[in-house]
């Protein structure tokens, strides 16, 4: 086993030597700070050495990036201009007025209009045509059966009607036609069911005029 010799007092550095080494280290650090760190990190080049070494350009880039980041932060924290708020409010109002929404009783509006619908029933065949209407809406109607009388049932169904629900407005047998005013008792679908009990084809023509949302054949 080898043990190194303990240096003698004469071999140890003196206080003067230690102080000299410390001062040299401090001076070296200051030189590096002035010629390298400041130009590269902070774009500060008091001696011009940083530009000669190409370090000043690095500092300029970092400083520019820092300014841009600060500008972005300030822009994000600023409230929107009044003009932007007004335009946002206008856009919201327009969206509420014109945005297409799923059809439902709460958004559909009945308008006064007139339509005509014609269908042909074979012997024993039935058909149903209904109007989608709001409660209290009125429609003038007239239907005629060409080729023979038909059985009819005028009735209505509310939206999401319970099973076996029935609300009738009138019935008849072997009728050549009917006319009158249908007033909706509730929001929903209201109309006519016809069945041909004759031995030949019958053509039914329905004319309606008034406040309803849509007319369509359901059977």
Produce the secondary structure layout:
Elements: H1 15-42, H2 49-53, H3 55-77, H4 82-98, E1 111-121, E2 126-133, E3 138-146, E4 150-158, E5 167-175, E6 177-183, E7 188-195, E8 202-212, E9 214-217
Antiparallel strand pairs: 1-8, 2-7, 2-9, 3-6, 3-8, 4-5, 4-7
Helix pairs in contact: 1-3
Structure, explained:
Strands 5-4-7-2-9 form a 5-stranded antiparallel β-sheet, with no helix packed on it. The protein has a 4-stranded antiparallel β-sheet with strand order 1-8-3-6, with no helix packed on it. It is of the alpha+beta class and 219 residues long. The protein contains 4 helices and 9 strands, in the order H-H-H-H-E-E-E-E-E-E-E-E-E. Helix 1 crosses helix 3. 33% of the residues lie in helices and 35% in strands. A hairpin with an 8-residue loop joins strand 4 and strand 5. The protein folds into 2 domains: 63 residues, no CATH class; 107 residues, Jelly Rolls (Sandwich).
Which key terms come to mind for this protein?
4 helices; 4-stranded antiparallel beta sheet; rod-shaped; 5-stranded antiparallel beta sheet; 219 residues; alpha+beta
